[in-house]
Write a sequence for this structure.
């Protein structure tokens, strides 16, 4: 009996060794080309152009040619094709290795292709066995191929890690939001909400070509990607949100409007907003939002939606004009009232922009409206996503401002 067990153990061990060493059907790491980002563009002839940002093996120099370009530790290879799968096959026939999509961190659609509709590509991507549902979805204001070619990590050694870190800037600023492929597709297929994505572009490295009216007429949080007056090495930037109606892009939101979105959806971690001073019109008071809670109720009156968000904000003053460092209780109340008016105004602007201009409920108010219906059939017949444009809003904001973090004379 003991000899029989030893024999069985040896046979199992032999099978494992054959599987690991003798099988030619399993791709080794050396035979795979790892894709860190995929770009979707539309050509003038209506064909799809796919761009694959491929991580270079450590120490390699990359290849030169008409279809590839060097980008930091990666190369970008593009192909004109009819479908996603045929594009992958064409690139596999060109490369000496097989594309592997399991480490893809970002899916980038150009605005041009997003305006036409990306539904067919969403179904392909979500059903692909290698593409992870946690990769980010970015809508680029420029060509997706150009976006990938300029995604050169300045402070990171690996492009894959760079995409992961760049997409989390919303936790620091609130100026954008990280959307995964799973979240985007879920919103696209839902009857309670519409989908939206991170808005990205390429910062050309200087402020000479910026629209001066943007900085003259707005605050520092009123920019979208490609508009910021940052003077630095050319690189990508993610700022703002791309708004969809169905599978088609219908517009964009700037950094401040993104903060409004995060407040209303209870997704805001923290953010800094610059509020015009109630004491001096040319000065600003910087407020750090430390806590944000929103409770929303949706009522229907003769089929018309009435949406009532109740918002509680806790803020602290982190900088203001030196003339008002002696903050009296009266001045604090004045700042609170003015801040309440300012935040109410940009939240109302966001709400009416999404409802009346974009006609897209990216805030997911539908999940509150559904309680007004007895059956799923009644909900489907009402068609919330088309009725959202008829909504009226009543925003109530309570603000608590803490000033003790400022150094003041005593």
């Amino acid at each position: 009996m003991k000899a029989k067990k030893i024999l069985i153990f040896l046979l199992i061990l032999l099978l494992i060794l054959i599987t690991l060493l003798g099988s030619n059907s399993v791709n080794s790491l050396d035979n795979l080309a790892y894709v860190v980002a995929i770009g979707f563009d539309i050509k003038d002839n209506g064909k799809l152009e796919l761009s694959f940002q491929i991580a270079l093996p450590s120490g390699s120099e990359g290849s030169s040619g008409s279809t590839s370009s060097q980008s930091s530790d990666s190369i970008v290879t593009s192909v004109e094709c009819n479908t996603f799968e045929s594009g992958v096959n064409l690139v596999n026939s060109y490369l000496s290795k097989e594309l592997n999509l399991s480490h893809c961190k970002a899916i980038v659609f150009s605005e041009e292709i997003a305006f036409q509709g990306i539904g067919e590509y969403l179904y392909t991507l979500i059903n692909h066995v290698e593409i992870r549902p946690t990769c980010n979805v970015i809508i680029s204001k420029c060509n997706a191929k150009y976006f990938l070619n300029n995604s050169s990590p300045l402070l990171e050694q690996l492009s894959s890690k760079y995409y992961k870190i760049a997409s989390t800037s919303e936790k620091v600023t609130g100026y954008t939001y990280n959307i995964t492929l799973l979240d985007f597709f879920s919103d696209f297929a839902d009857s309670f909400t519409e989908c939206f994505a991170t808005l990205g572009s390429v910062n050309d490295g200087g402020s000479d070509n910026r629209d001066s009216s943007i900085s003259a007429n707005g605050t520092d949080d009123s920019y979208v990607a490609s508009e910021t007056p940052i003077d630095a090495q050319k690189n990508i930037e993610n700022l703002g949100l791309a708004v969809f109606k169905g599978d088609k892009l219908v517009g964009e939101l700037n950094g401040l409007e993104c903060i409004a979105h995060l407040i209303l959806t209870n997704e805001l971690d923290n953010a800094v907003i610059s509020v015009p001073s109630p004491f001096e019109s040319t000065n600003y008071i910087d407020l750090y939002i430390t806590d944000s809670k929103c409770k929303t109720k949706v009522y229907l009156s003769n089929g018309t939606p009435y949406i009532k968000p109740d918002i509680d904000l806790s803020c602290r003053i982190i900088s203001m004009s030196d003339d008002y460092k002696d903050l009296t209780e009266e001045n604090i109340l004045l700042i609170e009232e003015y801040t309440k008016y300012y935040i109410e105004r940009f939240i109302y602007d966001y709400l009416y922009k999404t409802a009346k201009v974009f006609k897209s409920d990216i805030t997911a108010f539908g999940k509150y409206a559904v309680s007004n219906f007895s059956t799923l059939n009644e909900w489907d017949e009402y068609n919330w996503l088309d009725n959202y444009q008829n909504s009226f809003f009543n925003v109530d904001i309570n603000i608590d401002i803490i000033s003790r973090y400022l150094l003041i004379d005593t």
